[in-house]
Amino acid sequence: MLFILSLLLNAAVLLGLSTMMSTVTIKNYTTGIIVALVIGLLNATIGFIISFPINVITFGILSFVVHLVVTALMIKLADYLLSDFKVVGFKPALIIAVVMAFVDFLLMVL
């Protein structure tokens, strides 16, 4: 249940940020759900493969920063994979990653 709620909230975050930022484009809410699911799957697979060695090297001290950067990279990868989702530049992807991490944190706390 928590996974579905997190997925729907991340889709809402993506849609909300696409209305606020001219560099982010999402076709509709269904696309937002698909994009949130793809980003989650990419983070769980490729993101883990990328972040694990970096966290081992830094002894986990920079774990949060590494997670944000890797999530931003996965957002850019989702941009390349999905035609109805567009993010122009790395900075908007990083902003999306920060807001998604904040929303996920709030979901875990509440």
TrEMBL record:
Transmembrane segments: 32-52, 59-78, 90-109
Superkingdom of the source species: Bacteria
Segment forming the signal sequence: none
Keywords tagged on the record: Membrane, Transmembrane, Transmembrane helix
Pfam family for this entry, one: Phage_holin_4_2
Protein name as annotated: Putative membrane protein
Lineage of the species this protein comes from: Bacteria, Pseudomonadati, Bacteroidota, Sphingobacteriia, Sphingobacteriales
